[in-house]
Amino acid sequence: MTVRVPAKVNLHLAVGDVRKDGFHELTTVFQSLSLTDEVTVAVAEDPGVEVQGEGASAVPTNGANLAWRAVEELARHVGRDLAELKVRVLIRKGIPVSGGMAGGSADAAATLVGLANLWKLEIGRDELAGIAANLGSDVPFMLHGGTALGTGRGEAIVPVLSRHTFHWVLAFARGGLATPKVYGELDRLRLEGEPPRVGEVEPVLEALASGEPHRLAQLLGNDLQAAAVSLRPGLRRTLRAGVAAGALAGTVSGSGPTCAFLCADADDALRVAAELSGAGVCRTVRVVHGPVPGARVIGGDDEP
Ligand code: ATP
Hints:
Helix content is 35%, strand content 29%.
């Protein structure tokens, strides 16, 4: 059973106060992009996880892998014996690891969808979303895909009307950034001064509904950007280079270090990618579009 699952970019990420449970209160708008991981789940005598592709060597293959945590969480939910789990998970990574694009969460969501099919579970999307939320803040959105407003830790998802397709260029960095470190840096910057904060989310939702990339470009914003740039000053150059290459605007994706550049149309995205890849400001570039659907079985029966 193979599931394809997209990466996400945050079009808007407002980081509020730290809650009693240690998480920050978020208001975010996610969009899923045509950059994907593929996760195959199969019955096997030697249970475990295998990882191939983009950044595979940095991904754990033990119980720390979010995909394996998804196996255990779903098994627990349906009362299967954890000691008897005859499941093998193969992850083919296209999403950069520790890139701010929620690759691990994507794999967890894909594993939930794949296993629910493999085990022929009578389980609805809402129930699956509840299990997903226990695995991580971004996991429910990765099930859902499209464009959505996330609140709470980001796990409470409401679909957002988004007209047309948006065209993006992604700049992958060398090495990743650990999400907790970026939040820590933001906390530090806020103790020291007033790093910029994004505005209200409503205009972003209106721009999405209009489908006009020029309008959306002016409103892209991410409170984590100052922290990511503080930890990785080179990102400032990358962001400038994307705009100089003709993108409408650029933003750090989530906790970074991937930068996402919104372009006027598909042709512009190709031109921006060509120029950016020659500018020496990133490891590699990708042209993608969004929104796309969330975790989906490929080449088999669809949803559980
Ligand atoms: P986010 O934006 O959700 O905070 P990210 O996209 O920056 O996360 P991920 O690639 O999702 O980063 O994961 C980062 C960490 O999680 C890495 O330290 C990695 O070793 C670990 N990890 C666990 N499972 C996975 C997985 N299936 N794929 C990628 N990383 C994983």
